[in-house]
Design brief:
The chain has eight helices and ten strands. It is α+β, with helices and mostly antiparallel strands and about 280 residues long. A hairpin with a 2-residue loop joins strand 3 and strand 4.
Length: about 280
Amino acid sequence: MPRKDGKRFKGTDMMYTIAPYIMDKRCDACNSITVYIPYEPMHEYILKKRAEGIKMSHLSLIIAAYVRTAAKYPAINRFVVNRRIYSRNELIVAMVVQRAIDAQSTMGKLSFELTDTVFDVNEKINDYIETNRQEDSNKTDDIMRKLTKFAFLLGPVVGLLKWMDKHGLLPKAIIDASPFHTSMVVSNLASIRTNHIFHHIYDFGTVGQIITMGNSEMRPKQKDGEIVLERNMPLGVVCDERIASGGYYAKCFHEMERLLAHPELMEEPPKEVNTDF
């Protein structure tokens, strides 16, 4: 049964064909790592853009680097459902925002193009945050409200949704509203002055990675033969190892580090985009 959010990927090697049968749950296949991003290049870039009248944030830079990395390394936008590997036909990021109306947290999704620049990403994020802070609900809130209205049916309904998702029968409207059907989930814990964590990946849905941004910290670094302290932003990354090898993920993290050390590289669209579909 073809899925509405991706198509079957058959170009992987034998190890990754077998891996979903050995690790049939996403929680079995979680690998975690802390990626330390030098803080000063991002901070200086943000100050420069704000002086030019552009409201830029660390969150925008992190997501822009992820989008640009996915344009070069498409495997991080794959997912596994029912022991099969799929190439996602969109690049979707889910995030949490606190509403100004009632101070409650809401979770929603943003769609990005692989050709988006850092300015495109920043504009979409600013619009999303502003809209969700002012409105009292979004698609995700609406579907949760409907589910919880009949609590006695919650178990059977969620069980049915899981079964439908497993067999590619989940309606596109539910996939579009579900924060669990995304390329990546990001949480800016630094905004509430909290350290980064390694957040579990959900078995329901198609999330491939979850990234948390934590408080900046000073770390020792060798420079010109001396040990100096450098301010870093730690990213707590949890990823599904069934969609890509450790070496592949390492290339992705190095690419994100390179882009965030020189954010101006993301001001123009990528010269080349690699896709699985």
